[in-house]
Write a structure and sequence with these properties.
FAD/NAD(P)-binding domain; eight-stranded mixed beta sheet; single chain; alpha+beta; 33% helix; 21 strands
Length: 436
């Protein structure tokens, strides 16, 4: 079966590799000059390669590790200590041990124990379905108390969701707590996170090479104008250069982007795609001559800062450099999307200096800013019922994106697992008629 995949990010390439392994003839079409999307990389003039954003691999991420092994990258995995903390009133507070938790000054002792009980309860609860219809705010206050919400969760939610978190489901917090607390194990709460030695983009390159080795194609600079559908079936896709026909087409793009490609689709289906809400991302990355701190990640409790998190790791190939990410999640139409790199640099670094007075901008070797309008789906209330299915209403047309990994967070682990399941479903559809 000839399968066209629109989108050359991790989802599209992983899906293409799995389908090629089934024996299908795969063509991946990426509209930009570079593969990877959010999983892409910066290549600086001195030859240094740096991931555009951080993609930690947890020891429990078996799907990622299996795929890395399949791509011959198992020896590229490097694990390091994951020391975490909070920044409160420009002061650093560690959160990497039971002692750190019990001495956390932002909350009183009663609220600390209540917060700890909520985290333990979330880790021991598999019944996320009951949280699907509950707003995150209500669940957090009921489970952890008002003080914990006002001092910890509220600023984190405001920063994460660009201030609009009222419609966010409690499932998001449940998933985040389970994943992040899973890094550490009591009683010491020591943990580690992994990276690929040559950066996350090495997995993107390996997937593209695997598709080509199995007889497929990966093409860049191909802008798809329209996916034509009619009479309940896929007809063809149109690019700026003409028409292309496939036995099946997969839109491995964000739901609003898929809606734009389907002007002839049923109005009800288009409305479902258009209602999917996403967060955009502005992510400055700094390559420094010396580290800022010995923390892997620091969460800020002050929403007035332009970034909510500070993520820092040694460069995987050149440990003499430290790589710092200062991400800001925003609404796709936020004005910050159009702000120049120079203005972002000035605003971000002036606030970084408040936390690290010793920080010297002269220590910056490289500075770059990546932007993405549709980085992560917003897990809204009743998301279980509203997320679009892999099978669309049109025979031969499929949609595969991160809205469908719910209730898991849209991490590399969840994306790869979902791509594997979607490939199996599409392969099955090549032998069994697909209902419209």
């Amino acid at each position: 079966m000839k399968v066209g995949i629109i989108g050359g990010g991790l989802t599209g390439l992983a899906l293409g590799s799995f389908l090629a392994e089934y024996g299908h003839e795969v063509t991946v079409l990426e509209q930009t000059a570079e593969l990877g999307g959010h999983s892409g990389e910066w290549q600086f003039p001195d030859g240094l390669r740096v991931s555009r954003s951080q993609h930690p691999i947890l020891p429990s991420d078996q799907g990622v590790r299996d795929l890395c092994a399949r791509m011959g990258l198992e020896n590229e995995l490097v694990f390091a200590n994951a020391r975490t903390g909070f920044v409160h009133q420009n002061q650093l507070h560690p959160m990497s041990s039971i002692f750190d938790f019990l001495s956390f000054p932002v909350l009183g002792i009663k609220d600390r124990f209540r917060l700890g009980g909520m985290i333990l309860q979330a880790r021991m609860t598999d019944g996320w379905q009951a949280l699907d219809s509950q707003p995150a705010r209500e669940w957090l206050i009921r489970s952890g108390g008002t003080q914990a919400f006002e001092r910890i969760w509220k600023p984190l939610l405001e920063a994460k969701f660009d201030g609009a978190y009222d419609g966010v489901s409690a499932v998001y917090i449940w998933s985040w707590l389970n994943r992040m607390s899973g890094i550490r194990r009591a009683p010491q709460m020591e943990g580690s996170v992994g990276y690929l030695r040559r950066g996350h983009f090495s997995l993107i390159e390996a997937l593209a090479a695997d598709i080509a080795r199995r007889g497929g194609r990966v093409e860049t600079n191909v802008r798809v104008r329209e996916i034509e559908v009619g009479d309940g079936r896929l007809e063809r896709i149109r690019t700026l250069d003409g028409a292309m026909e496939f036995d099946a087409v997969v839109a491995a793009v964000a739901s609003p982007s898929a809606a734009l490609l389907l002007p002839g689709a049923d109005r009800g289906y288009l409305e479902q795609l258009q209602k999917s809400k996403y967060l955009g991302l502005i992510c400055p990355v700094l390559v420094l001559k010396q580290p800022l701190s010995d923390y892997w990640t620091l969460n800020l409790t002050d929403p007035a800062y332009p970034f909510a998190t500070i993520i820092e790791t040694p460069h995987p190939e050149h440990p003499e450099y430290s790589v710092v990410y200062l991400p800001r999640y925003i609404a796709p139409d936020n004005d910050w999307m159009g702000v120049s790199d120079e203005v972002i640099r000035e605003a971000w670094l002036s606030h970084l200096k408040l936390i690290f007075p010793q920080f010297d901008p002269q220590s910056i070797v490289h500075f770059a800013v990546s932007r993405s309008r549709y980085t992560e789906p917003v897990y809204g209330i009743n998301m279980r019922a509203s997320a679009p299915a892999v099978r669309t209403p049109y025979t031969g047309l499929f949609l595969v994106n991160t809205t469908q990994v719910y209730p898991a967070l849209p991490t590399g682990e969840a994306i790869i697992d979902h791509a594997r399941r979607a490939a199996a479903l599409i392969h099955q559809g090549s032998h069994t008629p697909v209902a419209a």
